[in-house]
Amino acid sequence: MPKPKLFIPGPVDISPATYEAMCAPMIGHRGPDFEELYSSIQPGLQQIACTTRPVFLSTSSAWGVMEGAIRNLVQQKVLNLCCGAFSDKWFDVAQRCGKKAEKIQVEWGTPLDPDSVRSRLAEGGFDAVTLVHNETSTGVMNPLAEIADVVNEFDDVLLIVDSVSSFSAVPIATDQLGIDLLLAGVQKAMALPPGLSVFVASEAALARAESTPDRGYYFDFLEFARNHGKNNTPSTPSISLLQGLDAMVASILKEGLPNRYQRHAENNALVHQWVEERGFAHFAPEGYRSRTLTAVANNQEIDVPAFVKTVREKHNFLINGGYGKIKGRTFRLSNMGNETPESMKELLAALDDVLPEFV
Amino acid sequence: MPKPKLFIPGPVDISPATYEAMCAPMIGHRGPDFEELYSSIQPGLQQIACTTRPVFLSTSSAWGVMEGAIRNLVQQKVLNLCCGAFSDKWFDVAQRCGKKAEKIQVEWGTPLDPDSVRSRLAEGGFDAVTLVHNETSTGVMNPLAEIADVVNEFDDVLLIVDSVSSFSAVPIATDQLGIDLLLAGVQKAMALPPGLSVFVASEAALARAESTPDRGYYFDFLEFARNHGKNNTPSTPSISLLQGLDAMVASILKEGLPNRYQRHAENNALVHQWVEERGFAHFAPEGYRSRTLTAVANNQEIDVPAFVKTVREKHNFLINGGYGKIKGRTFRLSNMGNETPESMKELLAALDDVLPEFV
């Protein structure tokens, strides 16, 4: 079967320019060629992450850094804000690291409520909060600024934010919001192949790490900080992906961040319009909908797996049939990465071509 | 400055065929396209690893799995066999994971002695041993079979082996030797870009992991085993590197493993001959020399950094000027990956061209 164009919520299609950059000659990672690559990436990544701090490069998927955040930053007890597959799992992972964890659980499709975060933190005993900004499984974008404000009311509680599927597509004011640990993968809105994560640690986060025992080596944030001083990484980095990242960061800056945000918003709006005009509903409530993907509520009870399969077979586009326990009750359309209104319209036309067989 | 051809001990040059494979269309990692890729890689990797067990794919450098081995397999106390930068560091990493660790330390450039391993294990209290088969920093290849035999004399002591820079270049009889955890990176003799590691866990290793607390998620060996059953990985994998790996495994099988071992041995012998004929010495003793790189003892006290620099500037070849505390006292010439007698002779001719300025 030919490989379809991807409209799943990551990974997404890779541009020829990115592939070309990834095929630059291999370089050694302990020497000036790598230091040059590393430092070339920094200023642009800092702009995208809205930070003046270093942006560390982890050779892992985002889960590695999500676990790393637990191992580095939690000493007493973490509060996991749970509203979908990935945020729920963070609660599980925290316990697997041997840490005390509690959670606020809202129903999938619902955003987190800042007030409930305040009341829970007021009970005391917590030293960290985890939040998934854009819960990819449900298409919910949580009220990051409001939750950040609440967490910042509590001294000594660090805010850990997963922006895996929002990074570079919507502004995330890392420094201004007082986010202590921001992390993202690169295979979502950044449109790189997976295998690499980026993260920013506040001074408070690094100070906390210093006194956290058993944080290991591979995800030790202090090792990242120490090696950053030498324009390097603690372990052998994923050099080809960094060469691709370097090119992608340059291309994002060339596009301009406001334009990039705008393009994602426009592409997203096209999908929203399609959802509404075709009589579907949104799985996420208004005001809390992701700008990079749309989780469509299957209110028309179409046969989602067959729909996904037919779209692929007839048009060679791959969409996603829902994640985990809401598989089939939802399907997901991504607009992240390099897509344009034109390419989104091609997808929507393909869906229109196939949909009549199913409703 | 143009990027040099790499004769450093990893990463090494990537072939056009590998780059081409890495640029295949991106695929989703939760679906049949990825399952097909995953299962396509397995039989060949199993042959290379001399195992009938699954070969797990970790999106990390080898250090991730080296730390994972500690977190999954050590409950009582680990014995780290230390003979160079990487094996020494494993002792440090074990302690950073909060585990009890002791070490046998031999001088850099010396191999481990199986008898000393036996006496130390006989003291009791250990449940795991770490061994770096081919210590890349010193060019020493340790007597794997002999040490494995010793460790196997002790029930309940697991043998963890790093074959990062020997994997696919020399035979490693994983199953036959009773290795409980074999791990390797792919950027050494496999000649892929870095960012991916492979590992094999014995039944005893998986059984041990089951009762080891706080092993986390990202490197939880049981998660790898569970997902392997679905031809998948616990976290989003480095898909482009796996596409490259698939092509490389096919190319290794096409070359034939005995031919590949032979080619590495021949290339290595050419370098050894050069070392001896030019009046240099080996840093590693006879019988314990790596087959993938040569650590040259700088007995002629040449200015190594200037030598390395001149070789690059005049011939665009990059060699390595020694690792860590033996920088300058040694320099290292790699023959791993896709090199041929012809390409090795080009390197040696370049060294000959430059050497007279330095001796």
Task: Draw up the topology in text.
The structure is a homodimer of 359-residue chains.
Chain A: E1 5-6, H1 16-22, H2 32-48, E2 56-58, H3 62-73, E3 78-82, H4 85-96, E4 101-105, H5 114-122, E5 128-132, E6 134-135, E7 140-141, H6 144-152, E8 158-162, E9 181-185, E10 197-201, H7 203-210, H8 221-228, H9 239-255, H10 257-277, E11 281-282, E12 293-297, H11 304-315, E13 317-318, E14 330-334, H12 341-354
Parallel strand pairs in A: 1-13, 3-4, 3-5, 5-8, 8-9
Antiparallel strand pairs in A: 2-10, 6-7, 9-10, 11-12, 12-14
Helix pairs in contact in A: 1-9, 2-9, 5-6, 9-10, 10-12
Summarize the structure.
The structure is a homodimer of 359-residue chains. By secondary structure, chain A is α/β, with parallel strands linked by helices.
CATH fold topology of the largest domain in chain A: Aspartate Aminotransferase, domain 2
Look at the helices and sheets of chain A and give the structural class: alpha/beta
How many domains of chain A?
2
Low-confidence segments of chain A, ≥5 residues, pLDDT <50? none
State the largest interface.
Answer: A-B, 57 and 57 residues
Arrangement of strands in the largest sheet of chain A: 2-10-9-8-5-3-4
Helix content of chain A: 40-55%
Topology order of chain A in helix (H) and strand (E) letters:
EHHEHEHEHEEEHEEEHHHHEEHEEH
Number of strands of chain A: 14
Strand content of chain A: 5-15%
The rough form of chain A would be described as: globular
Average of the residue pLDDT scores of chain A:
98
